[in-house]
């Protein structure tokens, strides 16, 4: 989960840590090395990726002494009480500040040498996040290559990652791939939704089928790395997400699409597989972003990527893990995805009327009102009815628009009947899972590489989005 700080009502660092803990977020990414934030993370158990801002790259690249001072001030002085595991050098340097390209790898080398001198190089990895824009033609993935203008820099960068056993940081946004694609790819492809047989996306050279634009973007990057004859460098997706609100000319920035993308992304990452070209290399992924940045400039969508409100409640329903109580699994009744809207409305009205479900929570201003969709409201009403009536013959059908699930649909402050606020995850994964980057190398995070990482970015300067 990335935390940008262009937020009018940004919580204090200590309150922010409380929000993270309340939502079982155990890994964060800072775009800078803010002292107040790093102090707040002390003894919290949260793993932290700190950032070198684009403005700092030149000085660090030109001077080993400046790099050593940066490490001493922003890393060594906080460890081990603050668990820093990675340094992201700049933000999309090659595309956002291309004049720094010649010095980028020097900056990374100088920082790594300073870590070695402090005996921290096995605990802290160094890399640099890059945009998909450095791959001019990402489809088909098998023919993708980095922009040749950056050949020298990319070779040095990949050599550094190989030598230091680090990973390639990729910012991959299917939202932009779809909205800038002029209708070339279907929306379902960007949202991880199943494609009909007539719309299958196939690489003509490898005959690999791509079920999502996300996988194709990752594979395009792997093939671009392969073109330099490097192998064994894992890709970590450091930014991805979907905006949930936009202007009149941004119809695809919606609550429904954001919820679909985020939940399907989580399911995709948790299936423990890689893209078609590297099926055994799980895709560690960070989601952008924690809070809406209402002070950001640009189109309306730029301000609405937040997954949580600043009080810690979820903007839209997020998939929790299956909740087990004793030896039994609690079953919930929810509306089917893609169900007919008219039938859903009929079912909702029946549940809240003759069915005698308690629908107070989905009234305007109440805890389960947002997102204000028929599907969300129907899920709440269906479940309330089912929990009260299934023991005496009540079913979870509602004219074929409902289904049972062991996945707790509760989110934020919206608690579904039958779930326990004290035992469920109010974030995306269960408390035993991790939100955050998982280093594919020794000395980094010690979590299974298949776990989704919700990155928290806490700096406004390195703005994350393209």
From TrEMBL:
Pfam families: Glyco_hydro_17, X8. It comes from Rubroshorea leprosula. It catalyses: Hydrolysis of (1->3)-beta-D-glucosidic linkages in (1->3)-beta-D-glucans. It comes from the Eukaryota. GO terms for cellular component: plasma membrane; plasmodesma; side of membrane. This is glucan endo-1,3-beta-D-glucosidase. SUPFAM superfamilies: (Trans)glycosidases. GO terms for biological process: carbohydrate metabolic process; defense response. GO terms for molecular function: glucan endo-1,3-beta-D-glucosidase activity. Its EC number is 3.2.1.39. Keywords: Cell membrane, Disulfide bond, Glycoprotein, Glycosidase, GPI-anchor, Hydrolase, Lipoprotein, Membrane, Plant defense, Signal. The keyword Transmembrane helix does not apply. It is found in: Cell membrane. It is a lipid-anchor; GPI-anchor. Its main location: membrane. Belongs to the glycosyl hydrolase 17 family. It is an enzyme of class 3 (hydrolase). Residues 331-416 form the X8 domain.
């Amino acid at each position: 989960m990335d935390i940008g700080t262009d937020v009018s009502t940004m919580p204090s660092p200590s309150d922010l840590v409380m929000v993270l803990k309340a939502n079982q977020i155990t890994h964060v990414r800072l775009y800078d090395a803010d002292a107040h934030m790093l102090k707040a993370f002390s003894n919290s158990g949260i793993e932290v990726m700190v950032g070198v801002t684009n403005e700092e790259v030149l000085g660090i690249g030109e001077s080993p002494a400046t790099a050593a001072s940066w490490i001493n001030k922003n890393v060594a002085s906080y460890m081990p009480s603050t668990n820093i595991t990675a340094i992201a050098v700049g933000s999309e340097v090659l595309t956002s500040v291309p004049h720094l390209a010649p010095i980028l790898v020097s900056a990374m080398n100088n920082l790594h040498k300073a870590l070695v001198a402090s005996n921290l190089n096995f605990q802290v990895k160094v890399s640099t996040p890059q945009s998909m824009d450095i791959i001019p033609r990402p489809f088909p993935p098998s023919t993708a290559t980095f922009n040749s203008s950056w050949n020298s820099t990319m070779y040095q960068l990949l050599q550094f990652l190989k030598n230091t056993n680090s990973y390639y940081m990729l910012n991959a946004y299917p939202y932009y791939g779809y909205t800038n694609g002029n209708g070339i790819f279907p929306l379902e492809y960007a949202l991880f939704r199943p494609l009909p047989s007539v719309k299958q996306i196939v690489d003509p050279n490898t005959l690999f089928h791509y079920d999502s634009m996300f996988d194709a973007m990752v594979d395009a990057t792997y093939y671009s790395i392969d073109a330099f004859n490097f192998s064994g460098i894992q890709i970590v997706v450091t930014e991805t997400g979907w905006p949930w609100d936009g202007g009149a000319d941004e119809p695809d920035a919606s609550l429904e699409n954001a919820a679909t993308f985020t939940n399907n992304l989580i399911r995709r990452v948790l299936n423990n597989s890689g893209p078609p070209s590297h099926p055994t290399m799980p895709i560690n992924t960070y989601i952008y972003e924690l809070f809406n940045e209402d002070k950001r400039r640009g189109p309306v969508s730029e301000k609405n990527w937040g997954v949580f409100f600043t009080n810690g409640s979820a903007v839209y329903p997020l998939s929790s893990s299956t909740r087990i109580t004793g030896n039994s699994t609690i079953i919930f009744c929810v509306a089917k995805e893609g169900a007919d809207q008219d039938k859903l409305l009929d079912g909702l009205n029946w549940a809240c009327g003759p069915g005698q479900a308690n629908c107070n929570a989905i009234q305007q201003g109440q805890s389960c009102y947002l997102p204000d969709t028929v599907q969300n409201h129907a899920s709440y009403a269906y479940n309330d009815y089912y929990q009260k009536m299934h023991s005496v013959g009540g079913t979870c059908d509602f004219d074929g628009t409902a289904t049972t699930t062991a996945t707790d649909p509760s989110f934020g402050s919206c608690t579904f009947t039958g779930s326990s606020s004290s035992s469920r995850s109010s974030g995306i994964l269960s408390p035993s899972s991790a939100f955050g980057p998982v280093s594919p190398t020794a000395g980094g995070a010690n979590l299974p590489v298949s776990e989704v990482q919700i990155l928290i970015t806490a700096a406004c300067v390195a703005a994350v989005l393209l």
